[in-house]
Structures are given as structure tokens and as C-alpha cells.
Design brief:
- The complex is a heterodimer of chains A (202) and B (222).
- Chain A has 202 residues and is α+β, with helices and mostly antiparallel strands.
- Chain A folds into 2 domains: 43 residues; 152 residues, Glutaredoxin.
- In chain A, strand 8 and strand 9 form a beta hairpin.
- In chain A, helix 2 packs across helix 5.
- The longest helix of chain A has 41 residues.
- Chain A is elongated and about 80 Å long.
- In chain B, strand 10 and strand 11 form a beta hairpin.
- Chain B starts with a helix and ends in a 13-residue tail after the last helix.
- Chain B has a single domain, classed as Immunoglobulin-like (Sandwich), CATH 2.60.40.1890.
- In chain B, 43% of the residues are buried.
- Chain B is built from 3 helices and 11 strands, in the order ααβββββββββββα.
- The chains are: A alpha+beta (202), B alpha+beta (222).
Chain lengths: 202, 222
């Protein structure tokens, strides 16, 4: 009898552990982006960095200073969000014409293992000569993404390949380096252009 | 002796629960539906388990025949439809890519007129090293992508829409860019109906999305 009771106790403990694990998973999977949004809204973003632009030249946070800036984190093995967003970024800049001249636009890869400066160059240059691709050492990219509160995660595929989950918004920073707003994935073009205009006028 | 018995009882149960708990944490985020003995018994399309339990159905996950007229719509009329077994495939299109882009998305509408569900499990294309079936989903401002390793279910008597922002054929390791206006042959493979060769009409992003806007909500907090 004692053995049975002990056994029941063990199973109860096992069930509790499974429940706890499940709850932890639910909490952690939903947390990053909500956390990111809260932090982005309340605090500044970004930090100093030493990375490489798509021409293979060193690039630091100084590239973001003194100009209104649009920053998008993505990767080239991305079938929809990244090409759509880069295409739209190019089209916003075209629409703005001379008004948008001060704006600097950056595409930072969250997949530096595959996105070498050469690959970034051949990819980004197809969309616009106004967008600068940024890559670099994986740990430095990770630090930078973290400082921007960007969520990204490598997702293995059965073929042995992988894809990436990532924050798909474009971050807008004013000329003083202050975070102003984001443009959401596939946001209405007029709204996006209006946000950029406002950014330039600050 | 009792201690040994206790250990014997403890370890399998605890180890099992620990493995269950830790693997749930470690793998849940990219789990896809696993082969479940008899897929025919599944009545509805399963969303990959990796998606957050709190979020609603994936955008355009499944649209019943009656409400899908718009997306199948007039664009489909210009393009051929394909049949294989009880399946009718229409509006087969792919997104144009820039040179050197490594991947592309393919979209279509698949109607199952049969009495058994079928599954789109993959394909083959001369222009891509790998053809997979994926689901994309926006979770807040985060884009998430999952491989449907078990295939995409086309329920009996139902219709599934593959479109930007949702289910898509993922062409990987592209050997050439997809150029707007051109067609690209691909063999699609279904679990029950077998294989069928279709032609993806390559469209610009703007035209790809034109018929989907009504079905897709774009979150913007600004």
C-alpha cells in the first residue's frame, strides 16, 4: 500500500513537472516581442557596434548619427517579409524624392552565418542604392539585435537547412538618435511615407 | 532494498517527465505536426504546434469554398487550372525574385472535391534545389516561419488558400531568379493524389498580394 501511495506521489510529481514545463514554454514563447515592444516604447534602443557594410567596409553606430534613419533587421533567405520590406523601403524613398534625401536606410542581417558582405551586396543592391546592408560577427550581430530589442531565432528545417523568425518592423530613429516609431510589415504606403516625412522634419 | 526500489520507481517516471518538460521547452518553438499513424482521421487542418496557443488561426489558414471567391477570383481565370485525383488547383503563382535571391514563395488555391483529405507534401522544380511546404505567420511584430513536415492538409470537400502571409510553397536554393511574367514548371506532390506538373506564373509582389489584402490583417501599433 505504501508502495502504491509512493508510486502515485511520483506520478503526481511527474505530472506537475510536465505542467510546469508547459506553462514555462507558453510564457517564454509569447514574451519576447511583447517585452520588446514595451522596452522600445519606454527606453532608447541601440548600442555601439563594430560591423561590416555590404561593401566589406567597417561600419559603426556613427553611421546612424546625424541623419534620420530607418533600420530593418532581416535575412536574405527570406521569401516574403524581407524582400517585400526592402522593396517598400525603396519605394518610400522614391516617393519622398528630395524630401527623403536626408534619410539613411539600413538592412541588418540576423543571419550573419550565411549573409556575407558579398551576399548582402548582391541582394540589397537589387532593391535600392539607398539601402546599406550590414553584417558581421554573429556574436556582435546578436548583441546589436538585442540592444534594439529585436527578436530573432534560428529554426531548423528537416532538410538540415534552417530559416529565421525575426521582428519584421522597420525602426525609425531621428537625427538625434532618438527612437521615434516603427513601420509595421506591409503597413499602408501613405502612412509609412507620412511617418518618414515626420521623421525628417524633426 | 527499499531505497533501491524507490530509485527504480523514481527514475523512469522522473526522467520521462523531465525529458517531456525540457523537450517541450526546447523544441516546441519549431515543432511541426508529426506523422500521426492515420492522417485520414484528421478532420481539420492542424496548425503547427510551435505557434503560440493564445493566437488565433493563421492568416488565410483555411477559407471555405463559399468565401474564397475573391482570392481565387478573376486572376485565376487567366491561368490554367490543374486537376490531379479529386484535387483542383488554381491561381498558381510565384513571387518574382531579385537576382541572387536564394528563396521564393509559391502560392495557389487547392480544392479537394473528394471524400478523403489529402496532403500537399512537397515538390520538385528544376530551378530550385529544394521545394518545401511552409507556413508563415505574424505574431505581433515578429515574422515566424514553420515547415509543414507532415504536409498541408486539404480537407475533404474543402479548399486551402496558399498566399503571401500564410501557407506557401517554399522554393529553396534557387538556381535562377524568377522573372515577372515568366512561367516556371514545378511538380507538386500530394500524399494520396500523387504528382502533378503545374506552371507557376511569376508575378511582382504588388500583383501577388493584390487579391489577399481583404483576408489579411496587418497589425500596426502606430
Amino acid at each position: 500500500m505504501t508502495a502504491l501511495r509512493r508510486r502515485l506521489g511520483i506520478w503526481a510529481a511527474a505530472a506537475a513537472l510536465i505542467l510546469a514545463g508547459g506553462t514555462l514554454w507558453l510564457v517564454t514563447t509569447d514574451a519576447p516581442q511583447q517585452f520588446a515592444q514595451r522596452v522600445v516604447e519606454s527606453k532608447g534602443i541601440g548600442q555601439p557596434f563594430n560591423l561590416v557594410d555590404h561593401n566589406g567596409n567597417p561600419i559603426t553606430e556613427k553611421a546612424f548619427e546625424g541623419s534620420p534613419t530607418a533600420v530593418f533587421f532581416g535575412f536574405t533567405h527570406c521569401p516574403e517579409v524581407c524582400p517585400t520590406t526592402l522593396h517598400e523601403m525603396a519605394s518610400w524613398l522614391n516617393t519622398l524624392g528630395p524630401d527623403g534625401k536626408p534619410i539613411k536606410a539600413f538592412f541588418i542581417t540576423v543571419d550573419p552565418d550565411r549573409d556575407t558582405p558579398e551576399i548582402m551586396n548582391s541582394y540589397v543592391s537589387n532593391f535600392s542604392d539607398r539601402i546599406v546592408g550590414i553584417t558581421g560577427k554573429p556574436d556582435e550581430i546578436a548583441e546589436l539585435a538585442k540592444s534594439w530589442h529585436v527578436y530573432w531565432k534560428k529554426i531548423p528545417l528537416e532538410s538540415g537547412d534552417y530559416t529565421m523568425d525575426h521582428t519584421a518592423s522597420v525602426f525609425l530613429i531621428d537625427a538625434k538618435g532618438k527612437f521615434k516609431s516603427t513601420i509595421a510589415f506591409r503597413e499602408n504606403t501613405e502612412t509609412a511615407v507620412a511617418k518618414l516625412k515626420k521623421l525628417v522634419s524633426h | 532494498m527499499e531505497t533501491i526500489m524507490q530509485v527504480k520507481f523514481l527514475s523512469p517516471a522522473l526522467v520521462a517527465s523531465l525529458i517531456a518538460a525540457t523537450s517541450a521547452c526546447a523544441h516546441a518553438a519549431f515543432e511541426t505536426p508529426q506523422a500521426s499513424g492515420d492522417n485520414h482521421q484528421r478532420a481539420v487542418v492542424k496548425t503547427p504546434r510551435g505557434w503560440d496557443a493564445q493566437s488565433g488561426p493563421a492568416p488565410g489558414m483555411m477559407i471555405l469554398a463559399a468565401s474564397s471567391g475573391d482570392s481565387a477570383g478573376h486572376a485565376a481565370m487567366k491561368q490554367p487550372n490543374y486537376t490531379v485525383g479529386d484535387l483542383l488547383i488554381s491561381n498558381v503563382r510565384a513571387g518574382a525574385t531579385v537576382p541572387k535571391a536564394p528563396v521564393a514563395g509559391g502560392y495557389m488555391v487547392i480544392r479537394n472535391n473528394g471524400s478523403e483529405p489529402d496532403f500537399l507534401i512537397g515538390g520538385q522544380a528544376a530551378f530550385a534545389g529544394d521545394v518545401q511546404i511552409h507556413e508563415m505567420k505574424m505574431q505581433g511584430d515578429v515574422m515566424k516561419m514553420r515547415e509543414l513536415a507532415d504536409g498541408l492538409e486539404i480537407p475533404a470537400g474543402g479548399e486551402v488558400v496558399l498566399k503571401p502571409g500564410g501557407y506557401h510553397v517554399m522554393f529553396m536554393k534557387l538556381t535562377e531568379p524568377l522573372i515577372e511574367g515568366e512561367n516556371r514548371k514545378t511538380t507538386l506532390t500530394f500524399k494520396n493524389a500523387g504528382s502533378v506538373q503545374v506552371e507557376f506564373t511569376v508575378k511582382s509582389r504588388k500583383h501577388l498580394n493584390a487579391h489577399d489584402k481583404d483576408h489579411t490583417k496587418h497589425g500596426s501599433s502606430n
